[in-house]
Amino acid sequence: MFMKNIMKLYTDGFKNMPRWGRTVWIIIGIKLLIFFVVMKILFFPNILNKIPTDRQKADYVLEHICDENN
Amino acid sequence: MFESFNLSLVDWSRVQFALTAMYHWLFVPLTLGLSVIIAIIETKYYKTGDETWKKLTKFWMKIFGVNFAIGVATGLILEFEFGTNWSNYSWFVGDIFGAPLAIEGIMAFFMETIFIAIMYFGWDKVSRRFHLLSTWLVALGANLSALWILVANAWMQNPVGMKFNPDTVRNEMINFWDVLFSPTAVGKFTHTVLSSFTLSAIFVVGVCAWYLIKNRHVTQSKRSMKIASIFGLISMILTIYTGDISARDVSKTQPMKFAAMEAHFHGSSSVPLKAVGIIGNVKESLKDKDKELNFYGIQLPGVLSYLTNYHFDSYVPGINDLLYGNNERGLLSVNEKIERGYLAKTNLLEYKKAVSNGDLDKIELLKADFENPAWINKYFNYFGYSSYYSENKIQQSKNAMKVVPPVSLTFYTFHIMVLLGMWFILLFILILILLKKKDNKQNESNTKEDSIQLRKYRWFLWAVLFTIPLSYIASESGWIVCEVGRQPWIIQDLMTTSQAVTHIETYPVMLTCCLFALIFTALLIADIKIIVKQIKIGMDDTPIDNKNNLKN
Q: Are B495 and A65 an interchain contact pair (Cβ–Cβ within 8 Å)?
């Protein structure tokens, strides 16, 4: 019953949403699509994730933070 | 103004991060403060049952909703950037940065998303009491979200509660409470949140000023202005108080930033506070350590000394004292710190070599240093300075200059923030005075409640409206002081931005920087357009029947 009431709260809320509410939901959808699909995949590869072990990652970071060209 | 700025990989990465952080911060403060103002207005509705308060709550909820929806998740880009552009930092910082962010995600985000649904969809479906509780919990959740990210940021300014592990090359949290309740974290959280409350209060009074100029929603505007002005005035006074606490903390933990905030080059006693004015050529003062920096403006004698140490004649170190050292005052020179940092780095590299060679005696000997608080304090706490080491000591002395942040930018943004803060206090006081004064020559069509003198001063109402962008300038200036003033450090004294940056090609960083600028500008335009449209549509003006409002 409790869960049913909560579901009804959400469904009624979305059904009766005013125009401005629908507009911002469209913007949220587009934004999340850009952030998570386009940007995360194309522009945000984590360089350390390509290094297999934690020890190698530590060595890689150590090499760079101790690089005298910094 | 940008005296130490050339666009290399690290600078492009910094520009990119600064751009995304500053755009993100355009959305956040209004969410933090407006949520509390809405909760206060709804509390008035709960107590009085007056439908005008309910309509006001719904109107400001609409503005809050647009800003929240467009701003939400813009901070995610920053978290992506930690992995992409600052991977050395992300590794080095270990779980200290991750833990507060994870708590933010689990606790505050869920709190917001659950109760925000009740706040918007729950009118007439839940009791008035439960709806009010949900609204307050949304405000609490929003501000708790800010707590965790600000705690993480404070740790970067003042790293405490951790221990460096030479095996993993990571810092490990050893005391969560030290991280959470460090004076830097407490000062940063309270100052940032209270300044956001002030910004939101200015937003509310600014919008209401526009309604009064247009002679619309007079009763509602007056009520909103009164609440926002009292809220804003209290917040602004507390912002100054917490800013004072924060500045004193900065003077101890980040003295170079503190000196840059005041463009204070030569340490002395009875140091005046540069209240208003412009500074001379910073480059010349940096080149010649004996050259005084000219200041053209108003100074308050001894006030900087007092604000720093509660004594008008106390000593405050200047940029040159911190750069070249001052034996009399026990201040190490940057060159000395570089040597110490270099020794810590050499130890770490020796240790890693011993581990790969399986030299157990050497491992034990070197690891003991990383467990020894005295050694950590004397050497490892300057680890970041090692990146300025050079066999050529002339070159090293040149490198030492890099620990001075952009002085002019830090100085001007700090003073802009402070001066605008003073204007905000005056603004709130004037609004409250003019709201209280009745206009005896009231128009007959107005109700008694609407006959306020404030409506007569149209120039002042315009000034209130145009203070909205000023509040954003003050807020962003605060972040510039905080983040530019701490350069070149990403973690104070332990890691420079150059050490932290991921070694990737510069052009993808430039490309993504432009892309983010486009996306965030589009989001900002959408935010402003929708909010302005909703403000123009205005509040619900249908006649009110207050008779049956207290049925729940």
A: yes
- Asked if B524 contacts B28 with a C-beta cutoff of 8 angstroms, the reply is no
For B316-347, give one letter per residue: b (16+ CB within 10 A) or e.
bbbbbbbbebbeeeebebbbebbbbbbbbbeb
Decide if A58 and B83 are in contact by the 8 Å CB cutoff. no
To the nearest whole Å, the CA of A6 is away from the closest chain B CA by: 9
Question: How far, in Å, CA of B348 to CA of B109, rounded?
Answer: 40
pLDDT at residue B3, as a whole number: 45
Contacts of A7 in chain B (CB under 8 A): none
Token pair of B538, please? 């205005």
pLDDT at residue number B442 = 53
Strand blocks (E) in B242-331: 268-269, 273-279, 295-300, 315-316
**Closest chain A residue to B113, measured at CA:** A10
Contact between B502 and B85 under an 8 Å Cβ cutoff? The reply is yes
Asked if A35 reaches chain B (Cβ–Cβ under 8 Å), the answer is: yes
Pairing of strands B295-300, B273-279: antiparallel
Low-confidence ranges of chain B (pLDDT < 50): 1-5, 444, 550-552
How far does A18 lie from chain B, in Å, by closest CA?
10
Asked if the Cβ–Cβ distance from A61 to B526 is below 8 Å, we say no
- Most B-contacting residue of A55, A61, A67 (CB-CB within 10 A), to test interface: A61
pTM, full prediction: 0.91
Partner-chain residue, chosen from A25, A34, A48, that has the shortest CB–CB distance to B87: A48
For helices B334-357 and B393-400, give the axis angle rounded to 10 degrees. Answer: 110
Q: How confident is the model at residue B451, as a pLDDT?
A: 65
The answer to whether residue B502 neighbours chain A at the CB level (below 8 Å) is yes
Instruction: Spell out the residues 6+ positions from residue B200 whose beta carbon is closer than 8 angstroms to its own.
Output: B29, B30, B32, B33, B34, B36, B37, B228, B232
Tell me how close the Cα of B134 comes to any Cα of chain A, in angstroms: 14
pLDDT for B68 equals 87
**Is-cis flag, bond preceding B488, omega within 30?**
yes
CB B385 within 8 A of CB B337: yes
Res. A15 pLDDT band, cuts 50 70 90: confident
Structure confidence at residue B70 (pLDDT): 82
Residue B495 sits at the chain A interface (C-beta within 8 Å): yes
B518 Cβ neighbours under 8 A, 6+ residues apart: none
Q: Give one word for B317, left, alpha or beta, with left for phi > 0 and alpha for psi -120 to 50.
A: beta
Q: In the prediction, which pLDDT does B76 show? A: 78
Name the B residues in 161-180 with CB < 8 Å from any A CB. 167-170
Note whether B426 and B467 are within 8 A (CB).
no
With beta carbons under 8 A apart, name residues in chain A contacting B76: 35
- Closest by Cα among B174, B147, B148, B180 to B161: B174
Cα B17–Cα A46–Cα B489 angle in degrees, nearest 5:
40
